[in-house]
């Protein structure tokens, strides 16, 4: 697997987004959302936040409070694929901790946060693994989502196979 190149957004790209949303404060949310979506590693680097604050005439602390308030903003580089493991009671009793530990050992990630809210991104930025409190699909426990597709009755083996399949496909696509 190759490590993905980090390609920061250029000042021109950021300027173009800022001009698209000319309101002073209300549009900051949409600007940040758009910039995160455009970033190849789906996050907002500090330099981008500083630049947006400066251009919009806002204190950096205000921009930081926006990105820390909304959980969909990322301050760290994300993986190309996102796997969410449910850690709710039904899934826990049916072995979701095992799924999480298996992913961690399989992908070389190390947890960031406590068990209930841990997340990690693999060093090659292929995968980000997060936990979720409940998908509302408890009858299918244990439940995971892979790039927003829900998979129920998951087993450690099935999940590892799925992850290997994704990574293999990506490597093939990158080499073609
Ligand atoms: S506890 Fe996992 S889906 Fe509800």
Report on the structure:
This protein is α+β, with helices and mostly antiparallel strands. The protein folds into 2 domains: 11-69, no CATH class; 81-175, Glutaredoxin (3-Layer(aba) Sandwich), CATH 3.40.30. Helices cover 45% and strands 12% of the residues. The protein has helices at residues 11-20, 28-38, 46-56, 60-69, 89-93, 96-107, 156-175; strands spanning 81-86, 119-121, 127-132, 144-146, 149-151. Helix 1 runs antiparallel to helix 2 (28-38) and helix 3 (46-56) packs across helix 4 (60-69). It is elongated, with a radius of gyration of 18 Å. Residues 1-5 have low confidence and may be disordered. FE2/S2 (inorganic) cluster (FES) is lined by residues 86, 88-91, 134-135, 137-138, 141, 143. FE2/S2 (inorganic) cluster binds next to helix 5.
SSE layout and pairings?
Layout: H1 11-20, H2 28-38, H3 46-56, H4 60-69, E1 81-86, H5 89-93, H6 96-107, E2 119-121, E3 127-132, E4 144-146, E5 149-151, H7 156-175
Parallel strand pairs: 1-3
Antiparallel strand pairs: 1-4, 2-3, 4-5
Helix pairs in contact: 1-2, 3-4
The structure holds FE2/S2 (inorganic) cluster.
FE2/S2 (inorganic) cluster (FES) binds at residues 86, 88-91, 134-135, 137-138, 141, 143.
């Amino acid at each position: 697997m190759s490590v993905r190149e980090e390609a920061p957004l250029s000042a021109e790209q950021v300027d173009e987004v800022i001009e698209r949303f000319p309101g002073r404060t209300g549009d900051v949310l949409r600007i940040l959302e758009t910039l995160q979506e455009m970033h190849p590693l789906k996050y907002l680097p500090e330099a981008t936040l500083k630049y947006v604050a400066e251009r919009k005439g806002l204190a950096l602390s205000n921009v930081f409070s926006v990105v820390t308030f909304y959980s969909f903003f990322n301050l760290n580089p994300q993986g190309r694929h996102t796997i969410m493991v449910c850690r709710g009671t039904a899934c826990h009793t049916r072995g979701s901790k095992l799924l999480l530990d298996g992913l961690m050992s399989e992908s070389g990630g190390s947890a960031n946060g406590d068990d209930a809210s841990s997340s990690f991104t693999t060093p090659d930025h292929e995968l980000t693994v997060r936990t979720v409190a409940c998908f509302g699909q408890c009858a299918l426990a244990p439940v995971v989502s892979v790039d927003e597709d829900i998979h129920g009755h998951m087993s450690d083996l099935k999940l590892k196979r799925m992850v290997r399949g994704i990574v293999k496909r990506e490597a093939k696509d990158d080499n073609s």
